[in-house]
Amino acid sequence: MKESTRRSQGWFGKTGKDGLIYRSWFQKQGIPTHEMAGKPIIGICNTWSELTPCNSHFRELAEFVKKGVLEAGGYPVEFPVMSLGETVMKPTAMLFRNLASMDTEESIRANPLDGVVLLCGCDKTTPSLVMGACSVDIPTIVVSGGPMLTGRYRGRQISTSDIWRFSEDSRAGKINQEELFEAERGLCRSDGHCGVMGTASTMACMVESLGLTLPGNAAIPAPDTGRKILAHLSGMEIVKMVENDIKPSDILTREAFENSIMVNAAIGGSTNFVIHLLAIAGRIGVDLTLDDFDKFSQNIPLMANLQPSGMYFMEDFYYAGGLPPIIRQLKDHLNNESITVTGRGIGDVNSIFFDYNEEVIAGIDKPFNPTSGIVVLKGNLCETGAIIKPSAASPELMKHTGKAIVFEDIDDYKNKIDDPDLDIDETSVMILKNVGPKGYPGMPEVGNMGLPPKVLAKGITDMVRISDGRMSGTGFGTVVLHATPESAEGGNFAVVQTGDMIELDVQARKLNVLVSDEELDRRKAAWKRPAPLVERGYVGLYIKHVEQANLGADLDFLKGSSGSEVSKDSH
Question: Strand, coil or helix: what is 41?
Answer without folding.
Answer: strand
